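Render this sequence as a predicted structure.
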Amino acid sequence: MSPFTHLHVHSNFSFLDGGSSIRDLVAEAARLDMEALALTDHDNVAAAADFHRLALAAGIRPIQGAELTVSAVGEEGDERPFHLVVLAEDAAGYANLCRILTDAHLQNPRGSPRVTPAMLRGRTGGLIALSGCRQGEVPWRLLRGDKEGARRAAAFYSRLFGPDRFYLEIQADNLPGARSLARHLRDLGEHLGIGLMAANNVHYSTRDRFPVHDLLTCVRLGIRLDEAHPQRRLNAENYLKPARAMAAVMAHLPGGREALANTRRVAERCGPALDLEANLHPAFAVPGGGSAGAYLRELVYTGARERYGRVDRDLEHRLEHELNIINRLNYADYFLLVWDVVRYARSRGIRCAGRGSAADSAVAYCLYITEVDAHGRGLLFERFMSLERAQRPDIDIDFDWRYRDQVAEYVYRKYGRDHVAAVSTYHTYRARSAVRDLGKAMGFPAHEIDRLAKVLPHGFAGDAAAVLEAVPELRDSGLPLERYRRLFRLCAAVAGFPRHWGTHLSGLVISRRPLTDITPLQQSAKGVVVTQFDKEGVEDLGLIKLDLLPLRTFGAIEDARRAIAARDPGFDYERLPLDDPDTFAMISRGETIGVFQLESPAQRALQPRLQAADLEDIVASVAVIRPGPIKGNMVEPLLARRRGEQPITYLHPSLEPILSKTWGVVLFQEQVIEIATAVAGFSPGEADRLRRVMSHARSRAEMEDIGRLFVAGARRRGIKEEVAREIFSYIQGYASYGFCEAHAAAFATTAYKTAYLLRHYPAEFFAALLSHQPMGYYPPNTLALEARRRGVRLLPVDINASDAPFTVEEGAIRIGLQQVKGMPRDMLEALLAERDRRG
């Protein structure tokens, strides 16, 4: 093993205090032939799962840790905060670290985590601590001549963590006083019997990344590059130095040789603390105590008989195929959990429906989780789940937005607040945000930066330099582009770096074990308790995420349904005819203001050209007005072929059964998977990798790599290279966020039904839309004008006649009191109460 291991390392997840990504740090450690590496970001372990996976793949043993912000020994936060590095020896130590971080965040103001000595007591098992950089209490006091305070702090941590679990950190940082500080630390260690530890307080992978770190530091401190600040580094020494370089610099410091050797001893004691193969989703309490798999099968077949009337051989084969995969991957409990949440909502009249790739599942349809008949549509279940990928299923469910939190509260009650939390997100640097932040720190005038940022396209910051010549708005802007070259290079260097925390719109994570065994928890800006991991991180850890999405459209639908049913008791929204000619005629005229998914200007322009005749046309229109199909120039060929103006042809016979329902055009993610399988012989896992690369517009190198695999696979199956390349170009043009067919179908059904309400019940529908603002593309005044155009009168606000929402009176819409601007909610409620009291 190498004589030295870096045990104090910061990545870009130290949030503006790290100049390199996890991937770059691991790659550099592998290049230097390091056998182990620690990660110790500030007050978080957010990158732990990614670090674990990448390090093991590179043959490096990951050591999980964090640099804590701690109160002074013997104080309760009255003094300045200090740093303390802790490393997890094993899973138990990692769990203790998660608990410490949770208390540090939740017991202090948001954004100011602080660990008190009391939080550490009883939680140091499996943890090793280092005294830290010059911001650690021991070195900080020594640098100021407070030897007694330094001794007291060192003795406290030595007693707290135990023998051989607390070390005094010596750094060869080439800063003033480094040798004197090392001598004092050595003497203190000899006096107290505390070992020394060599570290380089790494903040970037290589020396040439120092300018990136320095600029991010300026952003964090709110200063410009030409301003001095005590927290700015004075040199470029805090990089991932090779072991030989560390040995050379440490040899000149008092205690340096001992400190160097101790890094190896500690590294040997620390093993991987995470198990990314663990299954941590909760067990479902089956009535009567039977198995989850058997109960799921029972519910599925009961639902199948209700949905289809009878279960024929083809349907049975489909259901058994899906159930086999679900049970072999141990997700029966998860499907039951989702079924239970949906059942709870429906039992209380809360409108809901699954969306996304879950609609590829006939099992989900039979459980009433989704409203898309995956079996009848021939949707590909492997787009959702497959044995080869073994990817955790992700079921997204839309709920009437008014009751989404009520459903979430049911989940908290059922599984316990120790086992449920919201999922975090990281707001990352993209072109505009990077230019604004970095440009300000580099001293560019605010008006120039604002003008420059506004003409940049949205996207990753790494694209900024490439678009200088490519974007006409930039070329013709009159801006002195040459002076921004360095700015754009630095923007590219921070592409995708996390800028600050956020909260996932709808994701809840549910764990079998207490969450603080697995992830620290902290508070979001809105006071919601969230995990420190984002959606990919929680899934890597073996946790299950459930997306409960608030959808205002469902609130409008439900209000319209009730209003219509009040005057027409025979009205049944769930059984609306899906072939109403008047509805399709209205859609084909582009008169779709207020219609879910079909009201945008692009959709309204599309509909007269498409002339939708059935629900399949609506599915196609929902899918085609997306960045992927538009970027791939699919809209015009689809319309021409749909209208019979262009022949439907296929580059290879194997494409016809896949593309016939979309007139020979690649439109859905499922088709990408099927083409990869039929043309290139890809396995389900390889095909899904292609789909992910395409749909998320990943790196050009990765796209070229998978393109070579595609062409090679097609040639092995006897397809000419030029044909294979052209087929690949079709699906490559699909890149950047196309829909899966299941998702388009789920939205299309709601789109058609809202169009039906608009055509046949405009007063009730517009009253409901106006009651649920803001939503959709258009403000209330536009909706009001459209209602009048359709012959619906709007009656003014009347304290004696108006309710809070908009209502319908004899075919006219009475404006609701909620429309009275500036009226406080309590005043509105008081007015309504007084009106009701008077009768």
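Summary. The chain has a mean pLDDT of 88. The CA atoms of residues 278 and 468 lie 47 Å apart.
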